[in-house]
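Subject: sequence -> structure tokens, single chain

Hey, anyone have a minute? Need the predicted structure for the following. Not urgent.
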Amino acid sequence: MPLAVLALALCLVYDGVVFVGNPLLVRGRAGAAGWLRPTSGPPAERAANLLFAVACALDLAGPCLLLAGRLRPLPLPRPVRRWAAAAGVAVSGANLVLAVTAQRTMGQAWRTGVAGTELEQLVTSGPFRAVRNPVYLSLLGTCIGQSLVLATPLTPAALATCLWALELQTRAVEEPALLAAHQDEFRRYAAKAGRFAPGIGRLRV
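Reply:
Had a minute. Here:
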């Protein structure tokens, strides 16, 4: 039962810092939050937002249903469960640091979607040198960390749905917008930096 509380706390802390705290800081600095309306973009972006919402719901549902006695965790030996939980906390913490670092590197250009104005400058410093989407990498890493803390039958669905949402958002929405805005500069950058992990998903020039 404590592991369910821990998994729920990790999820809420990540969401609170990355999706609430930073947009409020952006609002204070620039007079506008980093959140864009999830229904304001093109169909592909709206679909990605819906999938991401489903992934978040699945992440929260696992520990909540376990606490309510409606779900059981996957059976693991007690020593394995303890080591996995410790590793999960470390992985979640590292990915929270990665997300905050990436957001600070982007500064006021950080958004939850594509608005057009954030494409005026291509950010390639900090964690963006190795990965084009370090915040998305942190989302996937956090899903993995929470899965290590508390593995339930919903865990694979949450991770798969999150990956589906991020793939759709990057391939169908963000990368075409960046290519249109930066053209050869983005092509050269994307040929060196991976999409979600260093060396993986690089574009061919």
